[in-house]
Design brief:
Elements (H helix, E strand, L loop, with lengths): L3 E7 L5 E6 L10 E3 L2 E4 L2 E3 L1 E6 L9 H10 L4 E6 L1 H4 L8 H14 L10 E6 L12 H15 L7 E4 L9 E6 L15 E6 L10 E2 L3 H13 L4 E8 L33 H14 L1 H6 L3 E6 L2 E7 L5 E7 L6 E5 L2 E5 L3 E5 L7 E2 L7 E8 L17 E4 L10 E4 L4 H5 L5 E10 L4 H5 L3 E7 L3 E6 L2 E7 L7 E7 L4 E10 L21 E4 L6 E3 L4 E6 L2 H4 L23 E7 L8 E4 L6 E5 L2 E6 L26 E2 L8 E4 L9 E7 L9 E14 L14 H6 L17 E8 L18 H12 L6
Parallel strand pairs: 6-7, 6-13, 8-9, 9-10, 10-11, 11-13
Antiparallel strand pairs: 1-40, 1-41, 2-7, 2-8, 3-4, 4-5, 12-37, 14-15, 15-16, 16-19, 17-18, 19-20, 21-40, 22-33, 23-32, 24-29, 24-32, 25-28, 25-30, 26-27, 26-29, 30-31, 33-39, 34-38, 34-40, 35-36, 35-39
Helix pairs in contact: 5-6
Length: 767
């Protein structure tokens, strides 16, 4: 479609990482490197990689995720090997033993490229250079040891260290960040590699959800390859889900969507996936020149650059960049005029024709939404899919024979060894009856200081107060008004972790739990009594955890007419049938407070829909121009950070699926509903200044010069068809996908023409 047009349709301590090619490979030789890149099978390669962490998706999802990655132009998949997953209990000989074990497992399966397998790269440590100054000289000793330990394992592929400027030879030091075009390795013999191009950012309970515009990540990618980069990895390409208790932070959400090109549920995030696919294709069109020679960069004006890769044999590729965050520009290059929007890169595989500009998106956009499912009796009530609830009250305070007593307050992580999110602190105190507050009926105040992350205070088995931290400040401090009774009073503090600290210097020493002081204020003559050094009784975990209630098989479940809603510390159970179809499934936890959930005995993670983000800081749209940071582009202000929770299809059976919840703070489980993740609308918008589709690139120069932009729409699933065209405009339309409107100039024929195409083809393509 020439001119402007738009169409919308309804439809761990150690970090050990490995990179594996997505294409079949049988090299029979070592992977090496030089200053221009990795050398695989004797050939330099320009490589595009993406992070997919196997533990954040299910094995049944992996083939589809890998196929979509290949379709998106990735050559390589990167994954973490999670030490905490594979060795949750500490062993003897530590880092060396674990690393050697993983390497030997890979060797036994002939997975390294040197054995004819797909693994081309390994990483030891992760961003240690960001914190090593805190460790002084011992940091240098450690890095030298780690490098020697890794290379001695003789994998036949290179090792890298990210954010480690002093990585010793032959370790390749690499860059992580939102932009790495200005990065330079610490040796002229090492290639320029970007191991984490952050596709978005993680979300934290109680905060808005960050997202990164497609134009900006495309800009950062093109700039990296423009200025000599040869290997780039997106962190994340598919983020997935922090099942169970695996989320860290603390306070990182169960969703690890990361605004990645493939979303948490395995669906394509458009236009980000499609736009990056086009960027990758454009880069690959330049590969012959990129691997053959070094570049030459020339300034063409303020914030304007041209980079040329030209060989003696006649290969030529060019990148034109406008790094100004405000102003578009027209520049002259090699006798031709080129228009560049602000904050954009144009790619010219023949040094003449623009095949892609990072600010001009040809890919269609999709709108995915959660569709609530009707009940098994065809009712539309949100809770009707459930067949009835049973429940068990969790005892308040100490209920286990494994409880123990200690003088003083214990730090939680060391006390529990992270066996559970929960630790009870219990203490009994006596009042004599002659205290002023006992005489006049006034309240005293219980003051509690905790390292976090959340805390419930019970007095005489009644909830007296609660508090929570957040990612930016996990600590909790409470002043709880309480009414003591004459005689024995029982104070029970339930302390919770919401994932463990996973970054920063000495992060392993960041504690949690009630470390005090714990004080009673307002006693005789207004005095304060410090209870911190008393003999406290402790219980690690819950009675329900000890009884394995999450399996749903216990005989203790009861169902009575009086259903416990909005009560703390209740276990709930129900059954439901799986929704029809094969699309992704989620639970909407509207009405619930905070807790954990299990489907057929498998944990879908922590839920916390009551923790809402602040009202301010979000915008309806985000200007991609200028440097990105997680606080620049945010959504969900004033809303629950996460209310939908992924339920993998492979965990479900056709009927009688068992859902078990542990609700901490109180909620109404009858409001929970089942939903499917569906793509209902697709849109596309192009201008006459857009370049041709990358797929239309041809070596015939005359054909290239005559080709124009193309508008394409097609359904994301094979069994879908476009059922309706809601909007079509040829002229000067406004808005974005889901909210287009006509501009001052608009052709009345656009809609019927597109509608005719849809009737004939069930798709809108090549308009």
């Amino acid at each position: 479609m020439r001119g402007g047009g738009a169409v919308a349709a309804t439809v761990v301590f150690l970090q050990f990482l490995i990179w594996a090619l997505t294409l079949p490979s049988c090299f029979g030789g070592n992977v090496t490197y030089d200053h221009r890149g990795l050398v695989i099978g004797g050939k330099r390669r320009v490589l595009v990689s993406g992070s997919i962490h196997y533990m954040r998706s299910t094995p049944q999802m992996w083939p589809d995720l890998i196929q979509k990655s290949k379709d998106g132009g990735l050559d390589v998949i990167q994954t973490f090997v999670f030490w905490n997953l594979h060795e949750p209990v500490r062993g003897q000989a530590e880092m060396r033993r674990f690393t050697a074990k993983i390497v030997n497992m890979m060797k036994q399966e002939n997975l390294y490229a040197s054995q004819g397998g797909p693994i081309i790269l390994s990483q030891i440590e992760n961003e240690y250079g960001n914190v090593d100054s805190a460790y002084g000289e011992s940091a240098k000793t450690y890095i030298t040891w780690a490098a020697a330990m890794a290379t001695a394992l003789d994998t036949g592929v290179p090792w890298v260290m990210c954010q480690q400027s002093d990585a010793p030879n032959p370790i390749i030091n690499t860059c992580n960040g939102f932009y790495c075009d200005q990065f330079t390795p610490n040796s002229d013999n090492k290639p320029k590699m970007w191991t984490e191009n952050w596709s978005g950012w993680f979300s934290s309970f109680g905060d808005p959800v960050p997202y990164r515009p497609a134009e900006d990540i495309a800009f950062s990618t093109a700039r990296f390859y423009q200025l000599g980069g040869m290997f780039l990895n997106y962190y994340m390409y598919h983020g997935g889900t922090n099942f169970g208790r695996t989320s860290g932070g603390p306070f990182i959400t169960t969703s690890y969507d990361y605004d990645a090109p493939i979303d948490e549920y395995g669906l394509l995030r458009q236009p980000k996936w499609g736009h990056l696919k086009d960027v990758h294709k454009a880069i690959k069109l330049c590969e012959g020149a990129l691997v053959a020679t070094d570049s030459e960069t020339t300034s063409l004006g303020s914030n304007l650059e041209a980079t040329v890769y030209k060989t003696e044999s006649g290969l030529c590729a060019a990148f034109l960049a406008n790094v100004d965050s405000q102003s578009e520009a027209t520049l002259n290059f090699d006798g031709n005029s080129y228009h560049l929007p602000a904050w954009s890169v144009s790619i010219l595989p023949d040094c003449k024709t623009v095949v892609l500009n990072t600010a001009k998106i040809n890919s269609m956009a999709t709108i995915s939404e959660f569709v609530h499912q009707p009940s098994i009796d065809d009712s539309t009530a949100a809770d009707a899919f459930l067949s009835g609830w049973s429940w068990i009250h969790e005892p308040i305070g100490i209920s286990s024979d494994s409880a123990f007593t200690k003088l003083g307050l214990l730090e939680q992580i060391n006390a529990t060894a992270d066996q559970s999110d929960y630790l009870w602190y219990s203490l009994s105190i006596e009042t004599e009856g002659d205290e002023p507050f006992m005489q006049d009926g006034s309240q005293t105040v219980l003051h509690v200081d905790s390292l976090g992350h959340a805390l419930y205070v019970f007095l005489n088995e009644e909830l007296a107060g609660s508090a929570k931290g957040r990612n930016s400040e996990p600590k909790v401090s409470m002043d709880v008004p309480i009414s003591l009774i004459h005689g024995r009073n029982k104070i029970d503090l339930l302390s919770l972790t919401v994932g463990l600290q996973n970054y920063g210097a000495y992060f392993d020493k960041k504690g949690a739990g009630v470390t005090g002081p714990v004080q009673l204020k307002g006693l005789r003559n207004g005095s304060t009594v410090d209870l911190s050094s008393q003999q406290w009784t402790y219980q690690i975990g819950l009675r329900g955890e000890e009884l394995a209630l999450s399996s749903g098989t216990s005989s203790l479940w009861v169902s009575q007419p009086t259903f416990p809603k909005d009560q703390p510390l209740v276990w709930y159970k129900t059954t439901f049938d799986a929704p029809t179809g094969s699309g992704p499934v989620a639970l909407d936890f509207t009405g619930m407070g905070k807790g954990q959930a299990w489907i057929n005995g498998q944990s879908i993670g922590r839920y916390w829909p009551k923790y809402t983000a602040p009202d301010s800081g979000c915008t309806n749209s985000c200007n991609y121009r200028g440097s990105f940071s997680p606080s620049k582009c945010m959504k969900n202000c004033g809303q629950s950070t996460q209310k939908f929770y992924h339920v993998p299809r492979s965990w479900l059976q056709a009927s009688e699926n068992v859902l078990v919840l542990f609700e901490e703070m109180g909620g109404d489980p009858e409001q929970i509903s089942l939903a499917t993740r569906e793509t209902g609308s697709i849109c596309s918008q192009i201008l006459e200044t857009h370049p041709m589709e990358v797929d239309m690139w041809t070596t015939d120069e005359e054909t290239r010069t005559q080709a124009g932009p193309t508008l394409s729409l097609n359904c994301p699933f094979p069994n879908q068809v476009i059922s309706e065209i809601k909007f079509a405009s040829f002229g000067t339309p406004h808005g974005r996908c889901g909210s287009f409107s006509h501009g001052r100039c608009s052709s009345e024929k656009a809609l019927p023409i597109v509608q005719k195409v849809i009737v004939l083809t069930d798709s809108v393509d090549s308009i």
